[in-house]
């Protein structure tokens, strides 16, 4: 008896390597670095390409956050779940942000990247960092909390402030959920609008290689690779610490929660390369939210955790603050006791939240921290001004990975992580 042959499913054709976004972005980074190194003036003139791409992405961030949060919360039958997810996310953020500060403090004490420089603080150019210090003085926890509330609904979207959009989106989502069936047409409309908005995100990401090319060419052309060599130990210490934190601390958290940090990093490689080129984690925010949802985390969790994490879960920035502060102290022969370092740690915990969302937040947060710790000369920030741009890339990369891990971990804590979908997504 002949058994009829069942036709085999035809697999979708694989994209050629040159058509993959991460390959294009990687090629753009290499080409941009070469242009910036060989032709510095040309590299600096390409800055508008990187700036334009970041502006285009920022344009879409507000509607992405609003739609995902509003529809996610509106779809929750239990509004207590919103508070529960937010509380778990804040506990996670506080724990690992503090741990990042501690790790940076320990490594800086062991490696001592600034030891032996013997720099007189009086010889430093205070004017070089005066603007950052002035901005830092304007920042406080109180002003930060007050700034979460937008002046008007329109101003939150017009200014593109992530926390203000988040604040309104949560309230609007709760209002939709409480209204019940009456709000069903509005929810249906917002859900239908979500599809073209994310399609638009995909279209905009096609320009990622151009933005990466321009941003990298400008960075190398403006600052030069030689500027890194002068402070190579500091930069190497920071990158090494960030690596240990991501693959050691966060890697252990991932393993405990049933997935691998290496699989996650491979999964978000497009976003990581984009952040590497632009030094802006915001450039990858929309696509990161979409990927975490595809990896099995519920939309209601992703839409709350990731945008909030962009202000409260800054692991890379926290590592940078403690290492940079101790580098300045060591370079200027400023002796810091254990009590001074604990004070530095406590102030950094607060200032890292107070300066969140400010342009150049990492450097400004460091200025705010040193302004309160009288032992360390603020003028010492001039020592690291030249290489701050190169360290900002690592800050942004670490922050991005930290928020990706947070979204999956909080989703698992809440029972909102589809493990099989996550494994399928990680396998590509």
Secondary-structure topology with pairs:
Layout: H1 21-38, H2 40-45, H3 47-74, H4 80-111, H5 127-138, H6 141-147, H7 153-159, H8 162-179, H9 184-204, H10 208-223, H11 226-230, H12 232-256, H13 261-267, H14 269-278, H15 285-294, H16 299-312, H17 315-331, H18 338-354, H19 361-372, H20 388-413, H21 419-426
Short description:
The chain is an all-alpha fold and 428 residues long.
Plain-language structure description:
- This protein is mostly helical and 428 residues long.
- It has 21 helices and no strands.
- The longest helix is centred in the N-terminal third of the chain and has 32 residues, at 80-111.
- It is globular, with a radius of gyration of 23 Å.
> Major beta sheet, specifics?
none
Beta-strand residue fraction = under 5%
Low-confidence stretches: 6-12, 354-359
Mean pLDDT: 78
The second-level CATH architecture is Orthogonal Bundle
Radius of gyration: 23 Å
CATH superfamily (homologous) name: Sodium:dicarboxylate symporter
Core attributes:
single chain; 428 residues; mainly alpha; Proton glutamate symport protein; 21 helices; 74% helix
């Amino acid at each position: 008896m002949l058994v009829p042959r069942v036709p085999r499913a035809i697999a979708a054709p694989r994209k050629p390597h040159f058509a993959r976004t991460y390959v294009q972005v990687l090629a753009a980074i290499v080409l941009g670095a070469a242009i910036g190194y060989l032709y510095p003036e040309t590299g600096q003139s390409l800055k508008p390409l990187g700036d334009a791409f970041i502006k285009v992405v920022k344009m879409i961030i507000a509607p992405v956050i609003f739609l995902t949060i509003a529809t996610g919360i509106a779809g929750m039958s239990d509004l207590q779940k919103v508070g529960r997810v937010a509380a778990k996310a804040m506990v996670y953020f506080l724990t690992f942000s503090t741990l990042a500060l501690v790790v940076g403090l320990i490594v800086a004490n062991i490696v001592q990247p600034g030891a032996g420089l013997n720099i007189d603080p009086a010889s430093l150019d205070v004017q070089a960092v005066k603007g950052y210090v002035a901005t830092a003085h304007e920042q406080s926890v109180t002003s930060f909390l007050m700034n979460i509330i937008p002046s008007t609904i329109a101003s939150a979207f017009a200014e593109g402030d992530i926390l203000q959009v988040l604040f309104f989106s949560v309230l609007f989502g709760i209002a939709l959920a409480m209204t019940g069936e009456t709000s069903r047409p509005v929810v249906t409309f917002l859900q239908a609008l979500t599809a073209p908005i994310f399609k638009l995100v995909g279209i905009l990401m096609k320009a990622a290689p151009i933005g990466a090319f321009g941003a990298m060419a400008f960075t190398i052309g403006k600052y030069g690779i030689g500027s890194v060599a002068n402070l190579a130990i500091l930069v190497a210490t920071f990158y090494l610490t960030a690596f240990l934190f991501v693959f050691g601390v966060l890697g252990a958290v991932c393993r405990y929660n049933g997935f691998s940090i290496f699989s996650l990093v491979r999964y978000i490689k497009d976003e990581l390369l984009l952040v590497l080129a632009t030094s802006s984690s915001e450039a990858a925010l929309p696509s990161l939210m979409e990927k975490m949802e595809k990896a099995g985390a519920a939309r209601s969790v992703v839409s709350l955790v990731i945008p909030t994490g962009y202000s409260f879960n800054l692991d890379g920035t926290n590592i940078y603050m403690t290492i940079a502060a101790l580098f300045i102290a060591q370079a200027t022969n400023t002796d810091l006791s254990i009590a001074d370092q604990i004070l530095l740690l406590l102030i950094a915990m607060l200032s890292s939240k107070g300066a969140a969302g400010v342009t150049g937040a990492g450097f400004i947060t460091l200025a705010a921290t040193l302004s309160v710790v009288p032992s360390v000369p603020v003028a010492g920030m001039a020592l690291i001004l030249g290489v701050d741009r190169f360290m900002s890339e690592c800050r942004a990369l670490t922050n991005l990975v930290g928020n990706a891990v947070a979204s999956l971990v909080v989703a698992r804590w809440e029972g909102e992580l589809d493990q099989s979908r996550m494994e399928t997504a990680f396998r590509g």
